[in-house]
Amino acid sequence: MKRNKMKTLYLLLITALGVSVLSSCADYLESDQYFKDRMTLDKAFSSKQYSEEWLAHAYSDLRDENADVASKGYTPHCFADDMYYGDRDANYDISNASALSYNEFHTGMYSENEKQGSWLQSYRGIRNATTFIHNIDINEEMTLEEIADYKAQARFVRAYYYWLLLRKYGPIPLLPDEGIDYTDSYDEVATPRSTYEECAEYIASEMLLAAQDLQVSRDRLAIARPTRGAALATRAKVLLYAASPLMNGNTDDYAMELVDDEGNQLLSTTYDEEKWARAAAAARDVMELGVYELYTASFRETGNSSYPPTIVPPYDAEFSDKNWPEGWKNIDPFESYRSVFNGTAGAENPELIFTRGDNGGENGQAMVAHQLPRVANGWNTQGLTQKQVDAYYMNDGTDAPGKDKEIGRGDGSDRVSGYVTQDDVDNGLYKPLREGVSLQYANREPRFYASVAYNGSVWHLENEPDSWNKEQQVFYYRGDGNGYTNTMFWLRTGIGVMKFVHPRDTYRDGQIGRIVPKLEPAIRYADILLMYAEALNELTGSYNIPSWDGSTTYAISRDVNEMKKGIRPVRIRGGVPDYPAEVYASQDEFRKTVKRERQVELMGEGQRYYDLRRWKDAPVEESLPIYGCNVLMTSDQRDLFHTPVAEWALQSTFSRKMWFWPIRHSELKRNKRLTQNPGWTYND
C-alpha cells in the first residue's frame, strides 16, 4: 500500500510542477503501459523482467530533445556562433515547434512554448527513476550486486535529467525524495525553483552516491549504461558550471531579476573561488580512475585517398621525436581525431565516458545527412562560420594569417591569396588540398581537415552505388551543383562540416542506412581534461579537496604542471605544439586559449552554446555578424568568393532573455510557485 501511495504522490507532485499529464495520463505514465493498472508495484518489482523494463523506460526520455548531440530537429543547442543550419530559414511556422529556424533560434525570436519537450521528458524520467529507486530492493530474482548496480543506474539517470534541466532552464524545482501527502491540493504541493547552487549540489551529491555502486566499465552491449566514470564526469561538469561567471558572483541586472516566488535570488551574487577548486578536483577524480585516455590511431606510412598516409606535422623539438602520449611520432593526429566521431572508434573508444549509444536512434546519421553535399543526395545545409574556421591553428600552432580580421580582432595580417595548382599536388605540397583550393586552407592543423568541409574539399563517398560518384571534390561556387541556388540546399557561408562524416557515408536515395552509425559523444575524456585546465587557471589560492571516495586529498592550486596535464594531451593528439610559457604565466591569456581550445576540440558537440553563456561571453560573441565566403560569386570570381563577407542569410544578436530557455506558459499556470526566466512572459 505504501508503494502504491508513493506512486500516486509522485504523479501528483509532478502534475503540480507543471508536467502535462492531465490531458493524457497514458502518454505520461509510459512505464505503466506494461502493467495496465492490473499489477501492483510490489508485483511489478518482484519480477526481474518487469523491473528491467521499468528501468529501460527511465532511460527512454534521454533521447530527442534531451540528447546532448543531435539533429536540430530535436535540439538546436548544438549550433551557436560556430555552426549553423540553413534549411529552416524560410516560411517559418511558429505553430510547428520542430521547425525552429536558425535565425529565429539565434536571435531569440522563439516563443515560450517552443522546444519544451525536455521539461516533460525530464520530469517524467525523474519520476520513473525515483519509483524504481524506492521499489527495486524488494526484488528477489536479482542478486544484491545487480540491485545495487540497477539502483545506481536509476540514480544516475535521475540526476542526469536534473542536469539537463539545469543547463537549459537554469534553476529548477527539485522533487522531495520522500514524497508528499496525496491528500493535499495541487496548490499546497506546488514547488518553487531551488537556487542554482542548491540544484548543482544536489546533482553532484546524487552522482557521488551513484558512483559508489556503478560498474567501472561496461561491455559493448551495455555501452549506453552509465559507469562510475560517467557519474563522476557529470558531477565535474555540474560543478564547473556552478563555478562559472554566470552562476558564481553574478551581480548584473539579470541575476537580480532571476528570483523565486518569494523574491530570493536564484544565482549566487557572492563569488566563491573554492567552487573552481572543487570543479578541478572533480575532473581529477575522473582522471585518477585510470580508465580513460584519448583515442589515437597509429602512424600510417601508406594508404589510399580515404585513409591517406599520415601527414606529419612540422618538426617540433619537443613532440616530433617522442611517441604518444609524450609526442606524436607514432600516431596520426588527423585520423585520431576524425575516428572519434565518424563511427570508426566504436564502442571500444577509451575516450568515450558517456553516450546514449544506439538509443538515440538515427539522430547522428540524420545530422550527417544534413552535412553531406548534394552530390551524395545530402541536404547540404549544415555549415561553419568564418569565426570557427579562423579558430583552428596553423600546423605549427600559430594563428592563420588574417584571422578574425573582419570582426575587428585581427593582428594586422591579411588572408593568404592564391590557389593550389596541379604542380603543387604532383610535388606533394599543401596536403591534403587538391587543385583549385584556396591557400587560406593550406597548412592548417589536423583537426581542421577532420572538421571543415572547405571549398574544394574531397568527399570520399565509398558507399555510393555508382563508381563514378565516389571521391568527389566539391566546390560551393554559385552555379556549381552544391553552391548557391534558389532552393534551401546550399551552405550560407560556403563552408561545410566534415566532422562526424565517415568515408563511407552517403545519403543516396534517401537511405539512412548508407550512413555509418555514430555513437553520440555526450561526455568524452578530452572535455574532462580541458575542464581541469580551465578550473585550475581560475585559482589564486590553494585548497585541499578530498577525492570523491575520501581515499585521498588533492592539493588544488594554479599549478602550471597540472594545467599542462589537462591541455597538452589534447594538443599533442591534435598534432599541434603546446602553448609557450608566457601563455601559462598569464591567467588572462590562458583563459583565452583554453576557451579557444574548447571551441576547436568540442565543435559540434553541443558545448559551445552553453559555454558562451556560463562564461558570460554570449552577449559579445553571439552578437557579432556572421562571416563566410561570398556565396553569390561564381568560379570565375573565386577571389571574391574567398573574401569573407557578412552573410545576409544568417542573423545574429543576443538579448538578455537568452541566458536561459523560457518556461512554458502552461507549466507556470499549473505550478503557482514556479517563476519565469527574466525577459519572458507569463501570459497572464
UniProtKB/TrEMBL annotation:
What are the GO cellular component annotations?
cell outer membrane
Asked if the Swiss-Prot or TrEMBL record annotates the protein with the keyword Transit peptide, the reply is no
**Source organism of this protein record:** Sunxiuqinia dokdonensis
A Pfam cross-reference name: SusD-like_3
Q: Where in the cell is it found?
A: Cell outer membrane
Which residues belong to any copy of the RagB/SusD domain?
351-680
Give every SusD-like N-terminal domain span: 89-240
Signal peptide: which range, if any? 1-26
Q: Which UniProt keywords apply?
A: Cell outer membrane, Membrane, Signal
Looking at the record's lineage, which domain of life comes first?
Bacteria
Name it.
Starch-binding protein
- Whether Signal counts among this entry's keywords is yes
Family, as annotated: Belongs to the SusD family.
